[in-house]
Amino acid sequence: MKNAQQIEEALAELSALLGASGYLGGYDERKRHSRDTSTARSCLPIAVLRPGNTEEVAGIMRVCQRIGMPVVPQGGLTGLSGGAVPTEGSVALSLERMNGVIEVDAENASLTAWAGTPLETVQEAARCAGFEYPVDIGARGSATIGGTIATNAGGIRVVRHGMTRQHLLGLEAVLPDASVIRNLRPMLKDNAGFDLKHMFVGSEGCLGVITRAVLRLSPAPHDRYTVLLGMPGYEAAIACLASARRHFQAELTAFEGMWPAYWSLACRMVAASRPPLGTGHGIYILMETSSRDRGWLEEWLEDCLEAGVVSDGVLADSLSAARTMWSVREAIGDVDREIGAHLNFDIGLAPSQLGEFAEACEKALGDLVTRDILHLGHIADGNLHVIVPVPAGDEVTGTEVERRLFDLLAERGGSVAAEHGIGTLKRPWIDRTRSADEISLMRVLKAAMDPKGILNPGKVIP
Q1: How confident is the model at residue 31 (pLDDT cuts 50, 70, 90)?
Q2: 4-97: what fold?
Q3: Is Flavoprotein tagged as a keyword (predicted)?
């Protein structure tokens, strides 16, 4: 058990290791690293550690391992499940100084970057080299590569390109005992024993600190077309998705759904003049293709209108028009602030079940909420975001909302976390998704790799 003198000596050792730019002990700096974007309660770390390289990360883990000091890895602090919030008596290990693209390898279609590099920086480096890094989320400007790997981020183009896991060729990670797992080779095929890099994908910083990554790049699309569709209801949306998959096949890159309550609120916030599509539809779909032929898309849209699957549609005729359409979908962060206190759910189900699930939520939660429940998400991926207004500080109502919603989800065999992770906020509900044997195996893996339990304690595993 560590005592005050041990902590003081360890902090002095960490300060000497990292220097003035790497060790921050002031209140303002600690406050900035006391929470992520979620509704989880903030907690001041006893210090903020900002290593500049892998060796310094290993040095941090060596010191903290010796006295059992908790370490909470942090990326861009954009998480929505409390996974980067410090725990009592912990240090925050921020990767913000380990930032930058190390190499773009055009011959191998790969890119190597430090874990603290913002996603948008990686996307731009890939674009400049004639490629694309297709993982894309609204927080691209601040979310880091290490964070997207640690949560297996998805985003808007999963239907075509898959989750982050599909784009990871290699990584480097520091384990709790300060040893370093290093495989930074740009290889698609490597079956020499266990594929260790996948242990860290979606692990939320509980098994190791990701420091560098080799990412797989995709060919840049020739053209990208965006179309906004109004439909009578969710059944029409599923029929439209099936048609789009048959028609565009691999060129279908996004198929996003927005229910009317979300659509109306978001349009009022981001489209000051007039919405890009009229109101009164049962659901709004934002679809993107990488087709080379605009006429092909126009013909498909006309067929959908004639068949009555689509009630109205607008094809973006410029990049600015497409950005306006996407701004409504990506307003979710601003919508969160607009409606005040709320619970933000990120559930996974088969795409055919999302419409019925949204209706079931409205019925099950109707006596608990007095404002509109907002639904939107990645329909083609079976990922629905549900925003439920709950009065600030009303933990009793909040817990009951969670119980009812996650019970509905368990009945349908869904996941309590499609892309936002478990963190602390969804940890009490992981048994709605994972069996007792699965949770037991997670505990075994955690205990084997982190026997003192110092790395991101209290996250993911109940």
Answers
A1: very high
A2: 3.30.43
A3: yes
